[in-house]
Amino acid sequence: MVDRVYLSVEERGLLNKILADGLGQRGQRDPQWSAARIALARSLQITEAPDLKRFAEQSGVTGGSEIHARQLTGEGAEQDEDYTDVYRALLSVYTGTDLFADEGEFHRHLQAHLRRGIRDITEEWKEDSSFADYLLRELFFDRGEAATAGEMAPELAERVSRILGQIGVGARVVETREGPRISRFELELAELEDLDRLRKGLGKIAFALGWGENAVTSSLAPGERRVYLSIPRPAATWRTVDWSQVRDALGSPAAKAMALPGCMGTDVLGAPFVFDLAEAPHLFVGGTTGSGKSMCLHALLLSMLTGPTPPELLLIDPKAVEFNAYAGNRNVRGGKPVTSADDAMGALDELVAEMGARQEVMSALDVRNIAEANARGAGLRRIVAVIDELGDLFMTKREIEVPLIRLAQKARSSGIHLVLATQRPEAATFPGLLRSNVPSRIALTVQKASESRIILDEGGAESLLMRGDMLIRLAGRPTERAHGCRVTTQDIQEALAR
């Protein structure tokens, strides 16, 4: 008999949002099982089994929740309302194990699938969008017979041409290219005035195709009267990019020439997006819950660990969850992530002292930066401090801003770099003096245009598509769109074993 399954406070909150905002049952005393069954269905669609350790039982969590077996599977109810054996059969086929013979294993797998399904809905459903549309797209769309991006291209090109004509833009589709999530059309405009008409009509194009106001974008293309028009495709046609697919790009000659090559995913056409963190030289990452921020950080960490000369990593994780897998790695400063605000303050003060010591070494060698110092035998190793949930640190210990600003202002030449991340991008978590000294930014999906402006100094991130969709603005470069790759627990373990 399955007794009950346990959820964290965040997972309970998501189920309540599904009930209230998604299913329109706000204020009703409806148990959470109806939303939980949707989460189970979402997880069972995924071919890869959930990590039983990551999604293990959450009993004893303060503020958490429990769902009894009768509510979730109908166990003990009348025969036509008891679906326990149906779930047991589904999970037995899924795992290739006889879960009728092992009650404990059945419970573990049921718990893991429920929690993974909740995580995926968190990442996929934007709360300001229709939950009914989400269900139709993710649960009821026939994935086995879904059209590929290539199969959809001619039909979409025809629709685009028709819509352009309706808004008075004279244009011919010259070429169509398919990325992991976006179709990019190269247009040849009939007249110069069509450029203004196109830019003013982007919202109408998005509306006609069923997207948000700023989802369709345009940019100038090489050639006479040529323009790129980038249009998102339905989620069912998206192509997931795994870490293993972008990892090889870090071995390219261009990446090998970089001091700290990083790759979080691909550009809109599917080419690996590689940049040098040493040239950034500091990075701010912001995105709401489910936007893919954590996956972005893991991809960046794996990029640095995969390189020929991994830096020393100072990992600060106030929630004590995200960086646990890196504990014990020889490249982690102190041997484990820092989790308390006091310890974080001490670790950053140590970095400030290290910066001062390195500046003295460079002064003695009469050089300007770490590269020149190492060319003269200094043997200094680059250090990257990665802080997840900067907002939590500031709420607990506001004075932590002082060493961060000093490092942001002066640490570049000594080979010390900052990666600061938060799911609450606001003036309080990214104050002006720190912002002016952290020139490189990554914005994943945010809730409001004001949050996008905090990260990028411009809007746009509020219209992204969740699940790793991001806008990247590196120092001295225009804003570029990219899609994050998927990093699994196995990917992290393999990188740490190198």
TrEMBL record:
ATP binds at residues 287-294. PROSITE patterns: FTSK. Gene3D superfamilies: 3.30.980.40, P-loop containing nucleotide triphosphate hydrolases. GO terms for molecular function: ATP binding; DNA binding. Residues 270-453 form the FtsK domain. It holds the Pfam family FtsK_SpoIIIE. Keywords: ATP-binding, Nucleotide-binding. PANTHER family: DNA TRANSLOCASE FTSK, SPORULATION PROTEIN RELATED. Essential cell division protein that coordinates cell division and chromosome segregation. The N-terminus is involved in assembly of the cell-division machinery. The C-terminus functions as a DNA motor that moves dsDNA in an ATP-dependent manner towards the dif recombination site, which is located within the replication terminus region. Translocation stops specifically at Xer-dif sites, where FtsK interacts with the Xer recombinase, allowing activation of chromosome unlinking by recombination. FtsK orienting polar sequences (KOPS) guide the direction of DNA translocation. This is S-DNA-T family DNA segregation ATPase FtsK/SpoIIIE.
